[in-house]
Amino acid sequence: MKKEVITPWEISGEINYSKLKEQFGTQLIPENLRKKIGDIHPLIRRGIYFSHRNFDSWLKDAESGKKVSILTGRGPSEKMHLGHLMPFLAAKSLQEKYNCNVYIPISEDEKFFVKKSLSFDKAKEFADENILDLIALGFKPSKTFIIKDFSYPKVYEYSSKIAKLITYSEAKAVFGLKPESNVGWSFYPAVQAFHILMPQFIEGPHKTLVPVGIDQDPFIRLTRDISEHSTINLNKPCAIHSKFLPSLKGSTKMSSSDESEANLIYLSDSPSEVKRKINKYAFSGGRDTLEEHRKKGGNPDVDIPFQYLKMLFEPDDKKLEEIYNKYKSGELLSGELKKITIGKINSFLKEHQMKRKSSKKQLKKFMLS
Ligand code: TRP
């Protein structure tokens, strides 16, 4: 097994999610809570969001009609792929259910500081491109607020308030800063803590929920540590943490840092690209020969096309179960399963790409200035 490495900027090796939860000190989302909110989104119902901090208290306020908000951000290091969708899909369905404000900060600064090869202009360009994808997901325009770190005027003011409460050695311990890391990087944790508190800085104290990949928990922890300080006086943020969408070849996370483009499905991919990538690269849990597959059945639990259906593209539990059983019994072949997944991804992308064309017109409604 490859050694597990996990920080907000590096994820590699086999990830043991339950160990991670221990290490970070978060709670598993208990079965009863998951059932209670199962209608919100399959990502939550099916345990892809598996861990949390004070989600129960956020829900209590949301359900009793108190003001609550949702926040999740995007680091614009590249064009968006399927793996990037998860926090935003969760945020959107929570917004639909509880009719609350959603804040989306875009951290061009973070990616500019952390990614050596990313130029200043390219980071800004990806930010603008990514925002068009986010708008296309269908958030409520009157209740959704997007900011860019390089242009929202209050970023430095609020981040400074926070930076004063974080020592260098804390930042170093939590984020694995190295002697050769640039100082922009060492300041950035204060910026993301500002993001997480932004709904409260703007609207006053209330509970904010941050749906996010588990690798981002160090930021949540840090923000919870400083949010009640007398110079800030806000509520601790709540969080739900997800697992990662695996890459096509089946490694832990769909990520462009250590994968070739062939292993990722971009939101801009054409139907034929999707078909080619899935057929050529997607790791299959099917058997080597047709006879063997018919006799012994496939393994949906490691099959990437099945995992994509489960995590993103088949919302109907009954249909998913049917596919699971048929694959396991050998009735459904690997090629047939791939075909189902290709069809689902392509119909999602077709609609997405169409909606994205009108995102520019809506930009003004979403950007907070
Ligand atoms: N750091 C996140 C990433 O790399 C992006 C991000 C910026 C974010 N601000 C945030 C995530 C606030 C959650 C909350 O993907």
What do you see in this structure?
It is built from 17 helices and nine strands. The protein is globular, with a radius of gyration of 21 Å. α7 crosses α17. With 369 residues, the chain is an alpha/beta fold. The model has no long low-confidence stretch (mean pLDDT 93). The chain has two domains: 245 residues, Rossmann fold; 86 residues, Orthogonal Bundle (Tyrosyl-Transfer RNA Synthetase). Bound molecules: tryptophan (TRP). Tryptophan binds next to α10 and β8.
In short:
By secondary structure, this protein is an alpha/beta fold. The chain has 17 helices and 9 strands.
Overall 3D shape? globular
Fourth-level CATH superfamily of the largest domain: HUPs
Q: Count of DSSP E strands?
A: 9
Quickly count the domains.
Answer: 2
Q: Which ligands are bound?
A: tryptophan
Give me the side-by-side strand order of the main sheet: 3-4-9-8-5-6-7
Low-confidence sequence ranges: none
The run of helices and strands is EEHEHHEHEHEHHEHHHEHEHHHHHH
CATH class of the largest domain: Alpha Beta
Overall mean pLDDT score?
93
